[in-house]
Amino acid sequence: MFTVERPVPACAFPGGACSWSHHGFKHFGHEGMTRGQTRHPLPAKYLLHVHVQAVETATVAGVERKAIGALAAKTEYLRATGVVIGWDDGQDATLSYVECSGGAAVRTFHGRPMHPGNRTVRKFP
Known about the structure:
disordered N terminus, 1 helix, three-stranded antiparallel sheet
């Protein structure tokens, strides 16, 4: 159903390459979804029309993104999309947040839509 386009984007972790994961479809929207269904502690969700893999791959591979971490355990990415891609805590999410994690041999990335006021955004320079 979902395939990872090649070449896979490079992870900020030296020597690490990540492949995309749907992460159990946790952040995928569904028919009839409401903003209330994205309020904490429920997960943020992408809007139905959003191609999740394309958005998240662009965040990891793009030049218009910020990366923090570059650790063996996890690297995090944040990118402004310029459009509403989902709902986060019931608010319009215009940011794409992605994390790449795993070991030296196998790493995957997955993400979620994020609103600009989310506390995670403050971690980024």
